[in-house]
Design a protein that fits this description.
Rossmann fold; single chain; globular; Beta-Lactamase; five-stranded parallel β-sheet; about 525 residues; Helicase, Ruva Protein, domain 3; seven-stranded antiparallel β-sheet; alpha/beta; 20 strands
């Protein structure tokens, strides 16, 4: 293995002139006093870097724990912004962070490069051959990395060390300004510590909300506004948009972050058990109640209770919930003793509860008590190029899980993702990336260092790009079957596809099919699905 070598100062004859350095740095100095968004400030920083030190790609990454998060890129594939690089899995990044000075890796270094195959506008599996990086230090501690890469092995031979050091000092000042602005704008660090304390206490890892679209940023702003209060929040949105992720974010930013967040999927329980799950029961309250048991409200005391698919709650349970929300008092089933609880409620649904109220399937008073602060999560089709950032996030997860050195998207794959309407939203994208990566790896017997997913790997089909397995049609085959068998096959395929769209939620599937849930259960048993 060839160790990386430090960048050596070169004679001024091959370095930048003082005027060129000044011309390159002046705009950045002027930007320090301007009111710019973080993304624009970072974009200008990378633009100046590539002007002074030409290369094929540049990136600015922030160190978040043991993970490097791309904040800005220039010359790299769009999905790079959605990736999260664990330092322990990328030895080049680890070495860059371990040294205070710039580091250049030899062209024949056998350390894998995280950007191999990600350089924009390059066909094939070309690898980075000249790699230069340096840590950005704020207060003497590593804040992140600035990287510059080229496909030509000798591209950075003429870099002038003094000019590079001057640029690094200004880059550190730029990120320091951003940090100070963010600190003054909100108590972000305090909120992060609370969220981290909750994650450690609960033993759960909270997924990051990835996105830069206007609709996504508006949602983030709404979350930050309501998180600091104790208002009840009703999260609405289509299946798969990430409503539980929003609920987790609200709790993590709230004053209750150090307390537990308890979740209950209201659609996953029989009507007879919902009340016991929520309020608990005492021994002997009903058949099978062999001991006292606390309900979700008591478990969430001091913290947050998240009710997913709240539209599935029976009317009788809604009435009892209303009382708890009004005065914080509840009774376990079979007990005369009242318990006082302090719980912040967050609910989520993919139903239009106003329509449910008008249809008599949902209590109006309970609906108004839930929707004190409504939050709509936008579907993926309204988030534009966020689909590529999210794809990058899932690509990096699967790269790590499958033991690959690089997992990327071809240009036609990116275009296909942007065209597709995503009826299953982010969850559908996550499953698609995972499934496609696994299939591509299985068909790639030589296990290349860089695995590229093409549009064909997604098995999109039809004018609307609806996904299906390769070779499948829009209707089940009926050749060589009698009429009754063909009908049974068709019924089974319709039920299976509807359940898949609703992530095996039988109540939601029944609504789409226009069937009573009990009738759907009987049909499923007849078809051999239960």
């Amino acid at each position: 293995m060839v160790d990386p070598t430090l960048v050596k100062e070169t004679p001024s004859a091959v370095g930048l002139t003082a005027r060129a350095v000044l011309d390159g740095l002046t705009p950045l100095i002027q930007d320090l006093s301007r009111e710019l968004s973080d993304s624009e400030r970072f974009r200008r920083l990378l633009s100046s870097l590539r002007t002074l030190f030409p290369g094929d790609a540049a990136a600015l990454l922030r160190l978040d724990g043991d993970t490097l998060v791309p904040l800005a890129i220039d010359g790299l594939s769009s999905d790079t912004l959605g990736r999260r690089f664990r330092v322990s899995e990328h030895p080049r990044f680890a070495q860059l962070l371990s040294r205070p000075e710039p580091t250049r890796f030899a062209a024949d270094s056998d350390l894998p490069d995280p950007y191999d195959g990600l350089v924009q506008g390059v066909a094939g599996h070309l690898e980075v051959h000249d790699c230069l990086g340096c840590p950005l230090l704020i207060g003497g501690r590593p804040w992140g990395l600035l990287t510059l890469d080229a496909l030509n092995p000798a591209r950075f031979d003429a870099i002038d060390m003094a000019s590079l050091q001057a640029f690094l000092s200004l880059a550190a000042a730029t990120v320091s300004v951003v940090e100070r602005i963010d600190t003054l704008a909100r108590t972000g660090e305090e909120e992060r510590r609370r969220a981290e304390a909750y994650r450690q206490a609960s033993g759960q890892s909270r997924r990051e909300m990835v996105g830069r679209s206007e609709s996504h940023q508006h949602l983030i702003e709404e979350i930050e506004v309501v998180a600091g209060s104790d208002l009840t929040v009703l999260i609405t949105g289509e299946t798969g948009v990430g409503k539980e992720l929003v609920a987790n974010a609200i709790h993590a930013l709230s004053s209750r972050a150090g307390k537990p967040m308890i979740s209950l999927n209201c659609a996953a329980l029989p009507d007879t058990l919902v009340e016991s799950e929520l309020f608990g029961h005492v021994r002997g309250a009903f058949s099978g109640a062999s001991s006292d048991r606390r309900g979700k409200f008591e478990l969430a005391d001091g913290g947050t209770l998240f009710l997913d698919e709240v539209g599935e709650l029976p009317l009788a349970v809604q009435a009892k919930l209303l009382r708890v929300l009004q005065n914080g008092q509840l009774q376990r089933i079979g007990s005369d003793h009242e318990h006082k609880v302090d719980v912040r409620l967050i609910a989520a649904t993919n139903r239009d509860l106003a329509d449910e109220v008008r249809a008599g399937r949902f209590r109006a008073d309970f609906y108004h008590r839930l929707s004190v602060y409504p939050l709509r999560v936008p579907p993926l089709r309204e988030r534009g190029r966020d689909v590529l950032l999210l794809a990058g996030f899932f690509l990096e997860e699967n790269r790590s899980r499958l033991g690959l050195l690089s997992l990327r998207l071809a240009a036609d794959a990116q275009a296909a993702l942007l065209r597709y309407p995503w009826p299953g939203n982010v969850r559908e994208l996550e499953h698609l990336i995972g499934r496609s990566a696994l299939k591509a790896l299985a068909s790639n017997r030589d296990r290349r260092r860089i695995l590229t997913l093409n549009a064909a790997d997604f098995a999109f089909a039809g004018a609307l790009g609806e996904p299906r397995e390769a070779g499948s049609g829009s209707a089940p085959a009926v050749v060589d079957k009698d009429f009754r068998s063909a009908v049974t096959t068709f019924e089974r395929s319709i039920v299976v596809e509807t359940l898949a769209r609703h992530q095996q939620n039988w109540a939601a599937a029944a609504r789409e099919l226009g069937l009573d849930r009990a009738n759907l259960n009987r049909l499923a048993k007849r078809l051999g699905l239960k």
